[in-house]
Amino acid sequence: MDVRELAVEGALEFTPRVFPDDRGEFLSGYQEADFRAATGRTLFTVRQASHSRSRSGVLRGVHYTATPPGCEKYVTCPRGRALDVVVDLRVGSPTFGRWDSVELGPDRYRAVYLPVGVGHLFLALEDDTVVSYLLSQEYVPHNELALSPFDPALALPVPEASRTLLSARDRDAPSLAEARSAGLLPDYRECRRAGSGGR
């Protein structure tokens, strides 16, 4: 697999080698040796696998999990196309407030790894876009938080609100500054301790 470090510290893009033949294609979307070479460890213990299917123009995020417990993610898009965005929300991180993006889809079969405390957003670029997640924690509603994807301080690469479909929760989510003022953002050191990379 090819591995690329993203602009958010600890976040990675993985691009597997694809083997085509007259029957179709074969690939391995996760390989422990490559993940270990990039991170120094194996992937987290998977406690939940989730999928979403979205129409073109659906925007989901910016979502993150309160720390503790925190949550690591390994994200792929086996159908359709999605612009996947990672945002560093960890107060004290060397890349706090920075973001990076990766286009996901079945043409390259890329995956994105998000460490604890990194926010996640995606924009569906076509109908029937399926995004799949491996998660280090099970979903607990009161631990799941959101930030506004339209916060000008973040300047994320998303269309204006009138050109997207999003939930009321995401539409009404606070800005980065509001979440920080309210003590809702994760602490970088605590994220490092909570994640597999901190053990």
UniProtKB/TrEMBL annotation:
Designated name of the protein: dTDP-4-keto-6-deoxy-D-glucose epimerase
GO cellular component terms attached to this protein's record: cytosol
Family statement drawn from the similarity comment of this UniProt entry: Belongs to the dTDP-4-dehydrorhamnose 3,5-epimerase family.
Active site: H63 (proton acceptor), Y133 (proton donor)
Keyword Phosphoprotein among UniProt keywords: no
Presence of the UniProt keyword Isomerase in the record: yes
Gene Ontology process terms (BP): dTDP-rhamnose biosynthetic process; polysaccharide biosynthetic process
GO MF term set: dTDP-4-dehydrorhamnose 3,5-epimerase activity
Site entry: Participates in a stacking interaction with the thymidine ring of dTDP-4-oxo-6-deoxyglucose: Y139
Keyword annotations of the record: Isomerase
Lineage: superkingdom: Bacteria
PANTHER family to which the protein is assigned, alphabetical: DTDP-6-DEOXY-D-GLUCOSE-3,5 EPIMERASE, THYMIDINE DIPHOSPHO-4-KETO-RHAMNOSE 3,5-EPIMERASE
InterPro entries: RmlC-like, RmlC-like_jellyroll, RmlC_Cupin_sf
